Amino acid sequence: MVAEGKRWRFAMVCSSNMNRSMEAHSQLGRAGLDVESYGTGTHVKLPGPSLHEPNVYDFGTPLWGHLRRPPPQGPRPVNSNHSKSFEISVSLFAMSLCGCRTGYKRNGLLPMLKRNTSVKLAPQRWQDNAGDGVFDMIMTFEERVFDLVVEDMSNREPRLMKCVLIINMDVKDNHEEAGVGAKLAVELCQKLEAIDGDWEDIIDDLITAFEKQHKRRLAYSISFY
């Protein structure tokens, strides 16, 4: 339950806190909603030379600034085996910054990173967010991420007995779908914040109506802080 007159506080969560959750964070913020965003993975992954050779970084790494400062001064990926991939990614970034229609500019990663810098300094990890306070609703964009958030909340010792609504809406991890998913997230969050009374009494009807309107399947769970 959210106290009368109190705004909802939202958390957007995907795997690396780079695309889906960050786009939702950006759009919810522009809509005037109180929002943060996170990832649940062990590391942040960015595309490398191939699908099986991603560049891997610690959460908390301000990637835009790091990738604009190439080695030897710039940091290496977490796994030293990816150093060659990192060199290649820096070269692609250099071409993109010079205006070439290749590399990360072509696949949309460069604009994504530039967008992310307008949202916050660096990706954050959900499991390390206890100091960020409590949320009224947590939204995930992938079933596996939803399961990890539900598991993490169940492992936390409830102290406040404040309930939190956790909702999953599957969104493909690409730039176009992230934009669509973010718009739907804004609409859903606005509907929740507009509820007059206890959301627990109408959440089933609200979700059913949302699913019917947008032909998107939602899953939800309730946990406690």
Automatic annotation (TrEMBL):
A GO-annotated cellular component: nucleus
Main location per the UniProt record: nucleus
UniProt keyword Glycoprotein, yes or no: no
EC number: 3.1.3.16
Keyword Glycosyltransferase: no
The entry's keywords: Hydrolase, mRNA processing, Nucleus, Protein phosphatase
Superkingdom of the organism of origin: Eukaryota
UniProt cross-references to Pfam families, sorted A to Z: Ssu72
GO molecular function annotation: protein serine/threonine phosphatase activity
Its job: Protein phosphatase that catalyzes the dephosphorylation of the C-terminal domain of RNA polymerase II. Plays a role in RNA processing and termination.
Protein name: RNA polymerase II subunit A C-terminal domain phosphatase SSU72
